[in-house]
Amino acid sequence: MRSLSVVIPVFNEEKNINILLDELVKALSGSNIDFEIILVDDGSVDGTALELQHAVSKFQNLKVIQFRRNFGQTAALQAGLDYSSKENICFMDGDLQNDPADIPRLLDKLYEGYDLVCGWRLERKDNWFLRTLPSRLAAALISRVTGVYLHDFGSPLKVMKKDLACQFRLYGDMHRFIPVLAKDIGASIVEVPVNHRKRHFGKSKYGLGRTFRVLLDLIWLKFLLGYAKKPLHFFGYPGIFAFLLGLAIALKVVYDRFFNFIPAGDRPLLMFGIMLIVIAVQFIFSGILAELLVRTYHESQRKPIYSIRKVFSSISSKEDLLKAGNL
Predict the structure, then answer these.
(1) Which runs of E-coded beta strand occur in 179-250?
(2) For 186, phi and psi rounded to 5 degrees?
(3) Which contacts of 216-224 are long-range, i.e. CB under 8 A and separated by 24 or more positions?
């Protein structure tokens, strides 16, 4: 039987809780899925906590995690992942805009051999100027920068294998970059159109302000994926360029001094060349220090620099042969 943990962060969604749980249980119970629902209360200040307490006594397959304060959607998703017990994970929002009826279809697609199935809100029911347009522009930018081409990076509805989700830690606002993090470790990804509904209760927590945070996160993500394992390359290339340029300028000044008899002491060009050489040395030493920090980080946590999908072997260990009675 297929198994699934549905992780849902909620923040001030008291009117949506019961409707959401009823729809989820109905959609998953009729699809031969062994499931659990994990609701993470991200420091709600309305009646959400009380509704969740009542829901626990009503639904047997429900877990509730209550934060002491609002830590953000990414932290809520990571907490739900940490407390999940099934072999597959589904992330979705608690505002009823995601349709629970889409989950079995996404799970079916996952079992076709994919590691991550992303929902694509093909016909969004949001404000076009404040939500839809910024989301599409952000998706185009993220695709161009990261090389992971999806139509909808902002869709919260995703289904993935738990062993994949456990290979990266979510922090900051990195939940929207889950497909990029997954692709970086070699995951197979597919995008599936899903139903998107209007919000009827509560207020949206999204706005134009998130667009600017996405841009900042994207800069960090580009460095993280491209140079986190080799920071000397990030600092070294501009360092080498600055050194060669500074050296060329210094040699030009020296040539002019001895062959063209142009005084060198009062030429700003000389100071500019020396400055470039000093900057180059600083860049290269910064890269060396970053390399040392990265090596310390990986070795102290015993964090591998690779990701294994499966291990196959035709050779049985001695312990396996003893268990089988062959020795």
Answers:
(1) 189-194
(2) 90, 20
(3) 217/172, 217/173, 217/174, 217/176, 217/177, 218/141, 218/142, 218/145, 218/146, 218/177, 220/172, 221/146, 221/174, 221/177, 221/180, 222/145, 222/146
pLDDT at 276: 93
Please give the model's pTM, rounded to 2 decimal places: 0.74
Describe the crossing of helices 209-227 and 133-146 by its angle, rounded to 10 degrees.
10
Domains in the chain: boundaries: 2-226, 231-301
Which 3 state secondary structure label does DSSP give 98? strand
Give the integer Cα–Cα distance in Å for 98 and 192.
13
d(CA 264, CA 252): 10
CATH architecture of residue range(s) 2-226: Alpha-Beta Complex (3.90)
Average pLDDT of the segment spanning 238-259 = 91
Cβ contact 155:93 at 8 Å: no
Angle CA 118–121–123, to nearest 5: 160
Integer CA distances (angstroms), 90 to 70, 180, 286, in order: 22, 17, 41
Reported as a single tens digit per residue, the pLDDT across 110-142 is: 999 999 999 999 888 877 776 777 778 888 888
Q: What is the DSSP string of 246-305?
A: HHHHHHHHHHHHHHS---STT-HHHHHHHHHHHHHHHHHHHHHHHHHHHHHHHHHHT--S
Question: How confident is the model over 229-238, as pLDDT tens digits?
Answer: 778 888 888 9
What is the C-alpha to C-alpha distance for residues 210 and 217, in angstroms, rounded to an integer?
10
Q: Yes or no: say if 159 and 187 are a contact pair by the CB < 8 Å rule.
A: no
Strand order in the sheet with 62-66: 62-66, 33-41, 2-10, 88-91, 158-161, 116-121, 189-194
For the cut 80, the answer to whether the pLDDT of residue 224 exceeds it is no
CB under 8 Å to 259, separation ≥6 — which residues? Answer: none
pLDDT value, residue 222? 76
| Cα Dmax for the chain | 93
Assigned token pair, 92:
């979705």
